[in-house]
Amino acid sequence: MRRGMVIDLEKCIGCRSCVVACKQHNAQPAGTWWNRVVTPGSDFHAVPPEKGREYFLPVHCQHCQNAPCEKVCPVDATYRHEDGSILVDFERCIGCRYCMAACPYGVRQFNWEDPQKSMQEYGYLPGYTFGYPQDYRLNGRLVYTPNRPKGVVEKCNFCVHYLALGLEPACVRGCPGKARFVGDLDDPNSEVSKMIRDKNGFTLLREKGTKPSVYYLPPRRKEV
Fold first, then answer.
1. What is the rounded distance in angstroms from the CA atom of residue 55 to the CA atom of residue 18?
2. Of 9, 30, 85, 169, which is the most buried if we count CB atoms within 10 A?
């Protein structure tokens, strides 16, 4: 199985509910965003914008098959899980940020200070907590913790802690336009594979050779 995601740009309304759901469910420190939403004219130029029409492009870790971040990590903190997703072991990360420099999508975040201290500086109420409340280890590796240490790199992990419970990622469940789908890219009969095949699914920065596991369905062109 190779886990992947499909995002339908025709259905995305740019509300950024995915951004907020991701942050809240994954206890991201203040100032940290695993998900973001950009518009045409960004560095990605996914689909040429039509005159008089705008579309929204959600961007997060692309979980690449040929992931440059994985190749440059000197301590195997960034690694590939058996389902093809790219994860970060918070206990191994030494904060060298080689992976951040290598990622062509600019989606990795770095914790410059203790998250609890950061919450105080941003005005969070004393004792406020959010996110999935428990550490989650996958094959002994710490791939999610609500209390991130200072000096580690983090990013989207496909909500691996929720997948273990049989739940879809927070961004999928939180999308009011039902624009996000997850499934097995290796199965030609899966919903995601059919959508990619039938609706001309594409990946970002294909020329980089990273072979992402996140696909996008182009917005429909206006009828003239």
1. 16
2. 169
- Residue at 177 is within a domain: yes
pLDDT digits (tens, 9 = 90+) for 65-98: 999 999 999 999 999 999 999 999 999 999 999 9
> 123: pLDDT confidence band, cut at 50, 70 and 90?
confident
Asked if 44 and 216 count as a contact pair (C-beta separation under 8 A), the reply is: no
CATH code of the domain containing 142: 3.30.70.20
The parent domain of residue 174 ranges over 3-217
**How remote is the C-alpha of 10 from its chain's centroid?**
19
> Which DSSP category does 166 fall into?
T
Give the span between the Cα atoms of 180 and 2, in whole angstroms.
Answer: 17
Nearest-angstrom CA–CA distance, 91 and 97: 15
Rg (C-alpha) for the chain, rounded Å, is 17
Does a structural domain hold residue 116? yes
* Domain-located, residue 144: yes
Check residue 207 and report its DSSP letter: G
Residue 224 domain flag: no
Is residue 38 a contact partner of residue 55, using CB atoms and an 8 Å limit? no
3-state secondary structure of 209: coil
Number of domains in the chain: 1
